[in-house]
Write a structure and sequence with these properties.
heterodimer, A: 311 residues, Rossmann fold, Alpha-Beta Plaits, 6-stranded mixed β-sheet, 4-stranded antiparallel β-sheet, 12 helices, elongated
């Protein structure tokens, strides 16, 4: 992981008064998997569209392999690829015809061999003679993934590639991505709403909100900044007693159901809370500790509390 | 510009054509049926009013198909990609817009030739008119009319790329706006004097006037062919610049990405 494959500098897209993407800068290095997260409307898709050249930026530069994108478009596009649950191939022709066309455009040597290898890898060989529009959305996504791997890209932009896949196939795709990185040192810019998937796959995560990158770090470091864990306590006592104690001690809490309280607490305060509840006559029957994950980071950012917590 | 990618674009068009009954119907079936009707109308002139006018209609109908096929095949090829949400998939590969359009142009040329063969055969059977009587100038007429169809196709594509599928019906209709003023079936003198100037800025006027002159007395008006060529070159340059400008504007405004999304 050294050379930057993708360098984005002060990229912005402004529609009238609305800043869809507001001066973002980042890099993706060789063999690195970088997650791009954010709530709907954060600017992720607009960013990817600019990175692919189907939307022109208002300002800023995009360079791949040290070369400016617009000036070396064909050369760069032959070395990268894109997969998304929402991108499609021509609906009226067969899977093989579509892939043959794409192989031709990417100038693949021995295209049929490469297509067959990838069809087997993604377990879609049986779909090869079907018209693309007859496929289910999950099958389409896998065929689009075949297309994305045809040219042995050095960077793949993936926009929610597992969105329409069933869990078993989604897990296979995640494993495939990991294998690709290990064996071929492929770099990936990855957007997903599946936080567990991002946490599992990505070396680094950037979180966008309102067009800006508001947080960027490894998944572990991002969750560390949240600071608090969630303590779920099942108890045998009056809810008022529990609520009174936690309010007095200033702990954020809620009662998801009867005799269960969820408390936001730093990990070192957990024994103190449990002891305090016990001292107030609360009989604790079960304790569950949920450490913060990327989803908490995401929610904290969406709720506007992340920066405060990070400080 | 990559020859291999242009060839792939042609192959793409061929694969699609094989699976698209709609394109078969539009390009051949409708053209053949219209030709049949017009040939019968033309045949009705024989021995009644003026046989030469019958020939004008038949040749107008056969050769108008070149303009229509060139324009339609080019725009519908792109529209099918837009309907499939696959145009951006093509254009985020190394394929350039120009390579894609050249591929579409070659496939529309093949469709235009085939369409002319079909309609000319009907004209020969029903009206007993052989298109080959036009001789070598037929090649020039074909090229001129194809150039105009291609330029019209690029204008329609520009509008679709800029304003999306809201204006897709132009693919079927815009060229017919030209037809009344293009002197396709009748001499330009038929048009009211107030609107005759429109005919003189449409290249088809010069081509069909030359064809009628050739049918009438065997002479080929070379001056008219030069004017037609000049106008076609101007239209081709204008339509290409317009297409590039609207495509850039569409990428800038986000319209292209939204259309594909």
């Amino acid at each position: 992981m050294d050379k930057p494959i993708l360098e984005v500098e002060n990229l912005a897209k402004i529609f009238g008064d609305f800043k869809a993407v507001n001066n973002i800068s980042f890099t993706v290095r060789e063999g690195e998997i970088v997650g791009l997260l954010g709530p709907n409307g954060a600017g992720k898709t607009t960013t990817i569209q600019m990175l692919l050249g189907i939307m022109t930026q208002t300002s800023g530069t995009v360079s791949y392999f040290g070369k400016e994108f617009t000036q070396h478009r064909e050369e760069i596009l032959s070395k990268i690829n894109f997969a998304s649950a929402y991108s499609h191939l021509q609906s009226r022709i067969t899977v093989r015809q579509n892939l043959t066309i794409m192989a031709g455009l990417y100038d693949i040597r021995d295209p049929n061999k490469r297509i067959d290898e990838l069809l087997d890898l993604l377990e879609v060989r049986d779909l090869v003679d079907k018209l693309y529009w007859h496929l289910s959305s999950g099958q389409k996504t896998r065929v689009v993934l075949v297309k994305a791997l045809l040219n042995k890209p050095r960077l793949i932009l993936m926009d929610e590639p597992t969105a329409s896949l069933d869990p078993e196939i989604a897990q296979k795709v995640v494993e495939l991505i990991r294998t690709l990185r290990q064996k071929e040192n492929v770099a990936i810019l990855y957007t997903s709403h599946n936080m567990a998937e991002v946490e599992e796959l990505c070396d680094r995560v950037m979180i966008m909100d309102k067009g800006r990158i508001v947080a960027e770090d490894t998944p572990l470091e991002l969750t560390k900044k949240i600071g608090t864990a969630r303590l779920i306590v099942t108890f045998d006592a009056k809810q008022e007693i529990v609520g009174k104690y936690l309010t007095e001690k200033d702990y954020i809490h809620s009662f998801p159901r009867d005799h269960v309280v969820s408390i936001e607490v730093s990990e070192q305060d957990i024994p103190k809370v449990l002891f305090g509840l016990g001292e107030n006559g609360v009989w604790i029957t079960e304790v569950d500790i949920k450490k913060p994950n990327l989803e908490d980071v995401f929610l904290a950012i969406a709720g506007g509390t992340y920066e405060h917590k990070a400080d | 510009m990559s020859i291999k990618r242009i060839k792939t674009s042609i192959l793409h068009s061929w694969y699609h054509f094989r699976h698209s009954m709609e394109t078969w119907v539009d390009v051949f079936w409708n053209s053949a049926l219209q030709m049949l009707v017009f040939s019968f109308i033309a045949a009705a002139f024989v021995g009644t009013t003026n046989e030469l006018y019958g020939a004008y209609i038949v040749v107008g109908m056969i050769l108008w198909n070149i303009v229509w096929s060139a324009e339609y095949a080019m725009t519908i090829g792109v529209l099918w990609e837009i309907w499939s949400h696959s145009l951006s998939t093509l254009l985020i590969s190394p394929l350039t817009l120009e390579e894609f359009l050249l591929g579409q142009a070659v496939s529309s040329l093949i469709k235009a030739i085939t369409s002319v063969i079909v309609t000319a055969t009907i004209g020969a059977v029903v009206f007993h008119f052989s298109l080959l009587t036009l001789g070598w100038p037929l090649i020039i007429y074909f090229i001129e009319l194809f150039m105009f169809g291609g330029a019209s196709g690029m204008i329609v594509l520009s509008l679709i790329l800029r304003w999306g599928t809201d204006v897709q019906s132009l693919a079927w209709s815009l060229i017919f706006l030209v037809q009344p003023f293009g002197a396709v079936f009748y001499p330009v003198e038929i048009l009211p004097i107030q609107i005759r100037w429109i005919a003189y800025v449409v290249p088809t006027t010069y081509i069909f006037e030359t064809i009628r002159g050739q049918l009438r007395d065997g002479s080929v008006n070379v001056n008219y062919l030069f004017i037609g060529t000049g106008l076609n070159i101007v239209y081709l340059i204008f339509s290409y610049v317009f297409l590039r400008t609207t495509f850039s504007a569409s990428k800038k405004s986000g319209a292209f990405a939204r259309m594909e999304g």
